[in-house]
Amino acid sequence: MDKKIEIIGAPSTYGQRKLGVNLGPDAIRYAGLVERIRAIGLSVEDTGNIEVPTIDLDKFNSEQNGLRNLEEIITVSNNLSEAVSKSIEKNHFPLTLGGDHSIAIGSISGVSKHYDNLGVIWYDAHGDLNIPEESPSGNIHGMPLRVLAGDGDEQLVNISNYTPKVKPEHIVLIGMRDLDEGERRYIKENNIKTYTMADVDRYGIQQIIEETIEYLEHKTDGIHLSLDVDGLDPVETPGTGTRVLGGLTYRESHFALELLHSSNLITSMDIVEVNPLIDQNNHTAEQAVSLVGSFFGETLL
């Protein structure tokens, strides 16, 4: 890594219904993120949190066009897109701390304008490929990847005034174990490269990451990694709001990130869905920091 790593906090809880994930960026900082990166010998700058609308508990989870907290998420997405784009203009590596996974609408919108063919690795228990008319909940954190691919609410799809941000053939899903019917149909219709937990069991994480790299490296000019901590098993990462048992282990995830580091292909990253209000002694934030350390090249010897 020859770029300065720029930490950008996106403390938004508007994409889902549980308060607390907005505290995720500061929980990760408190767990020693900056110190961990500096100890690797890398240059890092924490530029703080983007501006996010103040939570009004009387209006929180209000539906706008069938989508919960739509106006607030549009604001967050625009603010984050601008911050991430400026980071790339400075030749920095933007590391965005969520917040719920709806923040990826903003982060990837800010990234993709700088690439002709951006690839996206979605490391998550969920596909986040819903559209409003098919969403069981109306929660926008279940929709960001579909929005980025050009489907969904027009205002969200056109964040930063262009669409799509990513093509389906440039997406790889890893860790899938909870998909809605519409998401399964969209994945099959668009032939999206998908690794379920059954695939992880069958092939092992090393083969999956190697295949992912081979699949993306020659048809993309940048790759964004969006890591949701609920991709890991909640036994190991309890501080997250949409838990699904049977996930990737902490050790598998470390190895996956070590392999991605070695590829030297990842050009930006999110880490999202850390909720300290439902965590145990900030354990999940500490896990997140350790995973980021592996991604940036931390080694035992």
TrEMBL record:
The keyword Cell membrane is annotated on this UniProt entry: no
Enzyme class (EC, first level): hydrolase
InterPro entries named in the record: Arginase (IPR014033), Ureohydrolase (IPR006035), Ureohydrolase_dom_sf (IPR023696), Ureohydrolase_Mn_BS (IPR020855)
UniProtKB keywords: Arginine metabolism, Hydrolase, Manganese, Metal-binding
Pfam families: Arginase
Cofactor stoichiometry and binding remark: Binds 2 manganese ions per subunit.
Pathway: Nitrogen metabolism; urea cycle; L-ornithine and urea from L-arginine: step 1/1
Keyword Electron transport among UniProt keywords: no
Family stated for the protein in its record: Belongs to the arginase family.
Descriptive protein name: Arginase
The organism of origin for this protein: Staphylococcus succinus
